Amino acid sequence: MNAEPTLELGDDVRSAIGRTAAPRTEVVTRRDIRKYSIATGQTERKYLDGDVAPAMFHLALFWDIVELDELMPDGVSVDTLLPKFPLEKAMAGGLELKYLKPIHPGDELTATRSLIDIYLKQGSKGPIIFYEVIMNVKDSNGDDVVWEKTTRLLR
Amino acid sequence: MRLSDIEVGVVLPSREFSCDNRQLFLYNAVLFNAHRIHYDYGYATEVEGYADLVLAGPLIGDWLHQCIDSWVGEHGRLLSMEYSNRFAAYVDEVLTGNGSVVAIDTENKTAEVDLRIENANGDVIAPGKATVQLHG
To answer: Nearest-CA distance from B95 to chain A in Å?
Structure first.
């Protein structure tokens, strides 16, 4: 019986740890809050009217906007923060969020994303690559608004 | 509702969630998410092997937040949430959000709540944990 080849993370992958994307700034509009609230099925008037953003609104505000030629055949765009991984099948992931300040129309928010870790684990069906990205969202006064850590798995 | 009104073991009101293809379109349009598993049935089922059009993972995460929002209302605020997407959920599928209080910190006036979104088979699609701060 042949042993399965061992997967290792090369320097080209591991050297990406610590990489930070250029900060992105967006201005929150009532219209954007309303659209997000309707699309997520919110029931509270303050969200549906766009007076204040529901939790996770920042995810839509800072989702990558890419041009058509940057979309892959499956419709997903390449996240330039990430290195080229030896495994590419995306599996379930997790999110940790801290809510530090509410978001209102007119807020000017800046998000900074950093790749903080990449590691390998052996799963029952083979190796799994984990990577972790932190996003800090601050307002124009420099106050923390949302802190988010995403953990993604690749098989 | 005040912190003094609740205790460990208190069960949150159950919430039912479902997303038809109109809402699924709107959600991914709001995100600017072009992943074909959310709108291209042939691609989702034949190429990626899903049973139907797939709900976006963050939408399920949003519903966990709504379980907390419905319960807390104006009596407090959400401080933190963590969750993971374990299984795919599909368009028109009826999902249920449930939760219960697992810890109370009277000094900081916070409660920790375990949450889950389940499908009709009882599979936990997305487990989560939230910390909320309540008045009094």
So the answer is: 13
